[in-house]
Amino acid sequence: MKSNHFTHLIELNIAVLLVSTSGVLGRYISMPPPITIWWRCVFAAIILGSYCWYKKIDLKILHKRDLATIIISGLLFGAHWVTYFYALHLSNVAIGMLSLFTYPVVTALLEPLFFKTKLNNKHVILGFVVLVGIYFLTPEFDLSNNYTKGILFGLVSSVFYAIRNILMKKKVANYHGSMLMFYQMVIITLVLLPVLFIFEVNPNINDWSALIALALFTTSIGHTLFVMSFKNFSISTASIMSSIQPIYGILFGLLFLNEIPASKTIIGGVLILTTVVIESYRSKKYN
């Protein structure tokens, strides 16, 4: 209903703000990305499982086909997180987050294939504006350095994330967002278990604090709210509106890691914020 549109926008923007902390936390944690993601999922599974138990949220999966979708989406989500954190470690918060945020364009192009709907030209245009914004935000880079590798990891991560979100859109109408996130955390935890025997790490107290914050605020609350927003917005709309995340992420990086972006950031930031405002207004017609 239109009367609830503002509330839905607030919830989506809270989700975006919380999820955007992944950049600074991912850079801050010293452990290898696969280990970081494993612990992130362990803590998040405990938090989400406890929440589902407390709220008596039904964990029953209704159909075998739903189970397959949840498993696949969990694998995609895990791949997205690992490649994204490699992007952060190889570059910085700005590059890692901005390269990931090609995913609204990927989503806008793929969503019609999954839902057999007509491609929305406005989403393509807005997605292109986001890309232009990312071009201005991204500093010059050499194809032989780690920044280039970071961007490539971010681009791959964006594809995994886009497909996972599209798959979740099909299931969120029938299941609670916390239940879906809980199962995905369990799946990623099981799949990444072998990394504990591959990497040798010595986490410190700061790593544990950041991991708990990552599991609670970024994952359990932020990503659950974002998944639940799929009930009220199309995937393309939610994706484009979440394009403000790099702005939040860069600000967090500046405040907590002293990572100062290039002067072109202002131009790119204005372009990205413009698409968010336009899509927020445009989506009101359909909610």
From TrEMBL:
Identify one Pfam family in the record: EamA
**Is Mitochondrion one of the keywords?**
no
> Which keywords does this Swiss-Prot/TrEMBL entry list?
Membrane, Transmembrane, Transmembrane helix
| Residue ranges constituting the EamA domain according to the UniProt record | 14-137, 149-278
What InterPro entries does this protein's entry cite?
A: EamA_dom, EmrE-like
Q: Name the source's superkingdom.
A: Bacteria
Task: Output the Gene Ontology cellular-component terms.
Answer: membrane
- Transmembrane stretches in the record are 12-31, 37-54, 66-87, 93-110, 122-138, 150-167, 179-199, 211-230, 237-256, 262-281
What is the protein's given name? Permease of the drug/metabolite transporter (DMT) superfamily
